[in-house]
Design brief:
Elements: H1 2-21, H2 35-40, E1 49-51, E2 59-65, E3 72-78, E4 84-86, E5 88-92, E6 97-103, E7 114-121, E8 127-134, E9 139-140, E10 145-151, E11 158-163, E12 173-181, H3 219-222, E13 229-231, E14 235-238, E15 246-255, E16 262-263, E17 271-274, E18 277-278, E19 285-287, E20 294-299, E21 308-314, E22 328-329, E23 332-335, E24 340-345, E25 353-360, E26 367-375, E27 387-394, E28 397-403, E29 413-421, E30 428-432, E31 438-442, E32 447-457, E33 473-477, H4 484-505, H5 507-517, H6 524-528, H7 530-541, H8 587-595
Parallel strand pairs: 9-16, 18-26
Antiparallel strand pairs: 1-2, 2-6, 3-4, 3-7, 5-6, 7-8, 10-11, 11-14, 12-13, 12-15, 15-17, 19-20, 20-24, 21-22, 21-25, 23-24, 25-26, 27-28, 28-31, 29-30, 29-32, 32-33
Helix pairs in contact: 4-5, 7-8
């Protein structure tokens, strides 16, 4: 029986032993005021610091040096109420400091009513500290919950959403968002202010979100690096972030200062999100060849043949404040040589177009996203090359004619023509007036030329890039026939003029030239036979009248006429000699002598 009494006595002492082990109280109960709470209230210029986590509780505390710390009494009361003593707990805080804490009972927490606090020194019964406050003005609210961050569907933008920490006060809070690169936390944090903020180039709040400027007590916090204000909303779009960067995002809460007030609460746990990379990294370019379809192409490393590529497109939402965008996948994806990929789709007409390319790889990071800025169909035209229909060479000039690649763009197309000699890479480029369909080029005779043409829309509505060059045409520029026709007329005239000049100026030289150009008359004795043999005798008597050839004058051409004939078979009548006349019996010889330069003279 004695053993039983001893065992019961030991069991009765067990609670006392456990209570002794829990001294000091911090080993058994959580500290009502954490170091984080005290740090958030550093800026409050009061000796007694108070805060409420849900406007249904209240905690007040003050710190003192252990050497100066004595027994104190804490009293509180509302207007026209009797003071009530609060049980104080003491906690060791830092080296040689003691924190005195009063946690108010729930039934003694009232909103929108003046609360009086007073601390008395138990030894002297003198007031040591005092303060007047309202519970609704000392909020220290926990951060939001269920925070998510994802790409907002535009370049350099992330959408952050959350749930309010207190469901009963949805419209009484401000939220602050901090966005820092994951590679350098606590550094280079992006600043997100409301649209009226004065930090151009930093991320801004989505225009559809109502914003609120911070109160005077929160100015320092709201202008801190990497923070942005949002009021009465549960999502925000951060803008102007760097492409292809992974960010850590945090959110915290504060009463708006109108119905409720307080200080900024602690930051939430960080969530990660990554902005898409720039489309220029893969050379993503999109254009329309026919004003109906869009053709996009990009390049990828051929050393990664096992990667999969997907292209998505969408038109930005027309309604203000909409966050959800419907992305459609392009089905006609093809793979070309040297890691080139392409896809063609037909977008909705009359809207800007955004394009996103996702590339999935077998190694980390598994998926890479590349985003192209929104573009308009009529400003991204890339037509086919014009069609050359005629190339004609005439008098050293090449005439080219072509057809526009799209007839609807005919009046808004600029053209360029280039041409070069065969086996030469020195192209000459000629700008052609807008809407022209032909051009004339000057060529060098005797060469072969290659010519091409290309088009670019540059009108007031349709714009785009230069098309590819058309198929080259090859033409031969032969010697110009126009120079041959005048030479046939001019050269004989020049030659005749030279001869006349020589005859008048240098008769001897002219005679030599004449002898070479016009040879002497053939021997008529051989030609006329015995007829000239009989008439030779008459010519010998007058041979001394023959002038030397060098003194000869220009002969006259005489027509040789047959002599008169008598009856058939009868010889002609004998010549009749007269002064100054040649014997008429030798007409052929007379013609010969005259052609030889002989002149008739009278008898000696």
């Amino acid at each position: 029986m004695a053993a039983g009494l001893r065992r019961g006595w030991l069991l009765s002492l067990l609670p006392a032993v456990l209570l002794s082990l829990c001294s000091p109280p911090s080993l058994c109960t959580p500290e009502p005021v954490t170091a984080q709470d005290a740090a958030l209230l550093v800026g409050v210029p009061e000796d007694i610091l108070c805060f409420s986590r849900s406007f249904e509780d209240l905690t007040c505390f003050w710190d003192e040096e252990e050497a100066a710390s004595g027994i104190c009494h804490f009293y509180y009361w509302y207007s026209r109420d009797v003071p009530t003593a609060c049980t104080i707990s003491m906690w060791h805080h830092g080296a040689g400091r003691t924190r005195h804490v009063c946690v108010f009972p729930g039934q003694d927490v009232r909103l929108f009513t003046q609360l009086h606090l007073r601390i008395l020194d138990a030894t002297t019964n003198q007031t040591k500290y005092w303060r007047e406050l309202s519970v609704d003005a000392v909020g220290l609210i926990a951060p939001p919950v269920n925070i998510t961050a994802h790409w907002a569907g535009a370049a350099g933008q992330l959408c952050v959403s959350w749930q309010p920490p207190l469901a009963d006060y949805l419209n009484f809070f401000l939220y602050e968002v901090r966005c820092c690169p994951a590679s350098s936390p606590e550094m280079l944090c992006s600043t997100a202010l409301d649209p009226s903020g004065q930090r151009p180039g930093n991320p801004s709040i989505h225009p559809a979100i109502s914003t609120h400027a911070p109160t005077a007590g929160a100015v320092a916090a709201s202008l801190g690096a990497g923070q942005g204000l949002v009021q009465a909303n549960t999502w925000v779009v951060l803008r102007d972030l760097r492409p292809g960067v992974r960010y850590h995002i945090q959110v915290r809460t504060k009463p708006d200062g109108t119905s409720m007030d307080g200080v900024w609460g602690p930051w939430s746990q960080a969530v990660a999100a990554e902005t898409p990379r720039s489309s220029g990294e893969i050379g993503l370019c999109c254009s329309t060849p026919d004003l109906q379809h869009v053709h996009c192409k990009w390049s990828w490393d051929p050393a990664e043949p096992h990667s999969s590529h997907q292209l998505f497109y969408q038109a930005p939402p027309s309604g203000a404040g909409r966050r959800d965008v419907a992305w459609q996948q392009c089905k006609e994806t093809s793979v070309g040589a040297q890691g080139t990929h392409s896809c063609t789709f037909q977008p909705r007409a009359g809207s800007a177009i955004s394009v996103l390319v996702n590339i999935t790889r077998p190694h980390a990071p598994p998926t890479l996203s590349y985003f192209k800025e929104p573009f308009w169909l009529h400003q991204s035209v890339l037509t086919d090359a014009p069609q050359l229909v005629q190339a004609t060479v005439s008098q050293g000039r090449l005439s080219l004619q072509w057809l526009p690649p799209l007839e609807v763009l005919a009046e808004q197309l600029d053209y360029q023509v280039r041409y070069t000699k065969e086996n030469s890479h020195d192209w000459k480029v000629l700008q052609v007036p807008r809407a022209a369909r032909k051009e004339v080029l000057d060529l060098q005779p005797g060469a072969r030329y290659h010519a091409q043409v290309r088009a670019q829309p540059s009108g007031p509505w349709y714009q785009g890039s230069w098309s590819a060059w058309s198929k080259p045409v090859v033409v031969d520029a032969m010697a110009d026939a126009g120079w041959i026709i005048p030479s046939v007329t001019v050269v004989p005239l020049l030659f005749t003029g030279v001869l006349l000049g020589l005859r008048c100026t240098f008769p001897s030289l002219y005679s030599n030239v004449k002898q070479k150009l016009w040879p002497p008359v053939p021997d008529l004795h051989r030609t006329l036979g015995s007829f000239l043999h009989d008439s030779g005798k008459h010519g010998q008597g007058n041979a001394f009248y023959k002038q030397p050839p060098e003194e000869a004058v220009l002969p006259c051409l005489l027509e040789v006429l047959p002599g008169p004939r008598g009856e058939a078979g009868a010889p002609p009548p004998p010549p009749e000699h007269a002064a100054g006349r040649l014997p008429s019996t030798d007409i052929a010889n007379q013609s010969y002598l005259l052609m030889s330069g002989w002149e008739p003279r009278g008898p000696p």
